[in-house]
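hey so u asked for the seq, here:
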Amino acid sequence: MYDIIIIGAGTAGMTAALYARRAGKSVLVLEKEGIGGQIVFSPRIENFPSVPNISGSAYANALFEQVSSLGAEFDFRAVKSIQKKDGAFLAVTAKKEYETKSVILATGVKHRRLGIDREEELAGEGLSYCAVCDGAFFRDKTTAVVGGGNTALTDALYLSEISKKVFLIHRRDTFRAEQRLVEALKNRPNVEFILDSVVTALYGAPSLTAIGLKNQKNEAEQTLPLDGLFVAVGQEPFNQPFAALVDLDENGFIRAGENCRTSALGIFAAGDCRTKEIRQLTTAAADGAVAALAACKFLL
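ran it, structure tokens below
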């Protein structure tokens, strides 16, 4: 039996493993995909204290090596559920079950979809949710980004360096993103804003060739020819497998405050999967430390 099982190997999960191992606890990290979470798709991190410039993948690999060297175990399996068992917990995967005295949920988030016809069909065929991953395929072509937050504007800036033309489509007339990003895009001659508009249709076969747009103020519709569409309209948490065990809010995030405690005794939540206002690399790391120390205190 492990002292702590951590679900998720992003910044929050691996930081939790780091602190738990330093406290002498046995730790297993379960991750259904790869280490690092969303940060591995970032080409450059410039806002992490003491690290002026590092790629997301290099950062994730360094953190993984640090945690592994301390003796944390990793197993790359998807957790189907967490069950209570004789005063402890059972982490259930498709092939194996793991017993633990406490659990830290650091499950991260996934990209939110547009929710329109043919979205799944055209995903990977001109429709993408990661500009850094797929942007290189659209060099010297016409692209568009949907969204109004930091991620969307950062994607548009990145694409403006390699694409012939970039449209930034947002459903409102103002952006949620940092003003410096807005100003930077305004200074890019190949970037054009399409505001108060939503994507209503996807055209082309087998690949995307155009999108349908509707202005929400005057209801005017247009067809915009494109080679690539990048969707950055938010994220959704991976918390449904644990909905019967811990309280979730109306958006599916785990209800947990700055102490990272959930509604279930012995279960903690860290990182983007919990209810919080700021979701950044530094806050994920902070959550990991808090959750690990809270779990260690629970185990006393």
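The chain has seven helices and 17 strands. The chain has a mean pLDDT of 94.
lmk if thats what u needed
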